[in-house]
Structures are given as structure tokens and as C-alpha cells.
Design a protein that fits this description.
It is an enzyme of class 3 (hydrolase). It is a single chain. By secondary structure, the protein is an alpha+beta fold. Helices cover 24% and strands 25% of the residues. It contains 4 helices and 17 strands. The strands form 6 sheets. Strands 3, 4, 6 and 7 form a 4-stranded antiparallel β-sheet that branches. Strands 5-14-13 form a 3-stranded antiparallel β-sheet, with no helix packed on it. The model has no long low-confidence stretch (mean pLDDT 96).
């Protein structure tokens, strides 16, 4: 049994109920998400071979503070960085360090800023210098998977429609969908109900209703979908060491579809690839 609750009267913790947000909340999310999108835009000009992922982390931290925001990941459940930087076969939750990016790498940068209590959550892939065609194709397939999932969002459908749209497309392109991680409700809380699976069937999952806010963030692999988490407790990698990619948007369900809160103001949702703004 799925419970829906007006967000204004919900307790400040994840109870399993799905929050329905009002117009004022949508405006708060627009501000937080656009700040995150602007930060990701700025990173497009500075991600280059030789850059340390720790430098990316410091850039994100400073960008947030300059704009009155705080990175949600910093000290979240013991995580000590302001962003996640996931390179090549790292699926998600890569921890920034003093290792330099190399020509031909692909890196996902995941940023969540908390602004006035609202969480703006988004991630993009960045090619480092010139990348191989196989990597470029993976980025294209992953971005298209995200946008197909978003196109399935409208009141009256179920969350499974998002997963079906992503899985059907990605597998038709001979890629695989990671099952171990999913999208999630977001708003005043960093992670809330419902979970948004990136695979499944259209008739499965909770019904989408106007006012819901959540992330869609498919992780797509060139090889098999299986992953493992390293000893640090965070870094997830592909078991077969195949390349992995991820794009993420935060969306809100509207009366006739959805609003993408984290769209790039500069049309840079796909850094290094032809501009395509959803």
C-alpha cells in the first residue's frame, strides 16, 4: 500500500510515504537545482587531463559557499567529500583524491547543493580530452536513456514506466542497466521515497502524481550490469571492468508531464557531445 502525503505536513524523515509538493516548493527546488546546474556548467571548462579529482571537489565546495549553498554529500553518513567523481569503470560514488585525470578518461561528476533547505541533485559525464568512440557512444546511449525515462513521467503512469523506457532502449543498444542503485525522492530530504528503478515494467511501482519530486539517474554499462563496492564502502565498480556512465536530472511531476529542474542554463547537459537541451 502506497501512502501519499502533503509535503508541508510530513515529518522531516523518510517514512516511506511519498510527498506531494506545492508551487512554493517547486520554486525552491528550481533555485537549488539551477545552482547545481550552473556549477556543472562551469566544470565543463575546467575538466582536463592532469586535473586532480580533489581539485574538482574543492571547486564544487567553493562554488556552493560563494552562492550560499552547502554540498549535501559532505559528512553525509561519513562521506568526507563535496562531490562524487566516478571515472571509467567506476559506476558511482567515486571518492575524489590526488589521482590526475588522464587523456581519454570519462568521469561522472555528481553534485547536490542544499540551498535554503532544498536539495538540487544532478550529475553529468565529462570526457577528458579526446575519448574513444566506444566511450562516446556509451555517453550518448546513457544520456538518451535518461531522456527517455523522463519522457515517461506524467500523472497516472507508474514509476515502472520510467524503468521500462530506460531498459528497453539501453538493452536494444547492446548496453546493460545497473540494478544495484536507483533514483530517489528528493526535496527537503536528500534521499526520500519513492525509489526510481531504471529497469522494470510499465505496470509496476507507485503511481505518479502531480507534486512528486525525484531523481532519474540511470547507470549504463558497456558490459554486464553487475557491480561490486570496494573496501572503502562507497566506490562501486563494474565487476567486468567495462566502462560505465551516468546522467542525472531532478524532475517534478506536473499536471501534464514533468519539469526538469536541473536543465543546464548553458545548454551543456552533455559536455563534450553535441549540445542537446532535452
Amino acid at each position: 500500500m502506497v501512502n501519499y502525503i502533503e509535503a508541508s505536513s510530513a515529518p522531516p524523515k523518510n517514512t516511506g510515504a511519498i510527498r506531494l509538493y506545492d508551487a512554493e516548493a517547486f520554486e525552491g527546488m528550481r533555485r537549488a537545482c539551477q545552482l547545481t546546474a550552473r556549477c556543472l556548467d562551469a566544470l565543463a571548462d575546467i575538466v582536463k587531463p592532469g586535473m586532480l579529482t580533489d581539485e574538482i571537489d574543492r571547486f564544487v565546495f567553493d562554488f556552493g559557499l560563494e552562492h550560499g549553498a552547502y554540498p549535501a554529500t559532505l559528512n553525509y553518513r561519513g562521506y568526507t567529500k563535496s562531490t562524487c567523481t566516478s571515472i571509467n569503470h567506476v559506476v558511482c560514488h567515486g571518492i575524489p583524491n590526488d589521482k590526475p585525470l588522464r587523456e581519454g578518461d570519462i568521469v561522472n561528476i555528481d553534485v547536490t547543493f542544499v540551498l535554503d533547505g532544498w536539495h538540487g541533485d544532478s550529475s553529468r559525464m565529462y570526457p577528458v580530452g579526446t575519448i574513444k568512440r566506444a566511450a562516446e557512444r556509451l555517453l550518448e546511449v546513457t544520456y538518451e536513456s535518461l531522456m527517455r525515462g523522463i519522457s515517461a513521467v506524467r500523472p497516472g503512469t507508474r514509476t515502472g514506466a520510467i524503468g521500462e523506457a530506460i531498459q528497453t532502449y539501453a538493452e536494444a543498444e547492446r548496453c546493460s542497466v545497473v540494478r544495484d542503485f536507483c533514483g530517489h525522492g528528493v526535496g527537503r530530504l536528500f534521499h526520500d521515497s519513492p525509489n526510481i528503478l531504471h529497469y522494470g515494467r510499465a505496470n509496476e511501482g507507485p503511481e505518479l502524481r502531480e507534486g512528486m519530486i525525484f531523481t532519474i539517474e540511470p547507470m549504463i554499462n558497456l558490459g554486464r550490469p553487475h557491480v561490486k563496492v570496494l573496501a572503502d564502502g562507497w566506490t562501486a565498480v563494474t565487476r567486468d571492468r567495462s566502462l560505465s556512465a551516468q546522467y542525472e536530472h531532478t524532475v517534478g511531476v506536473t499536471s501534464d508531464g514533468c519539469e526538469i529542474f536541473t536543465l543546464s542554463p548553458g545548454g551543456l547537459d552533455r559536455p563534450g557531445l553535441p549540445s542537446h537541451n532535452g
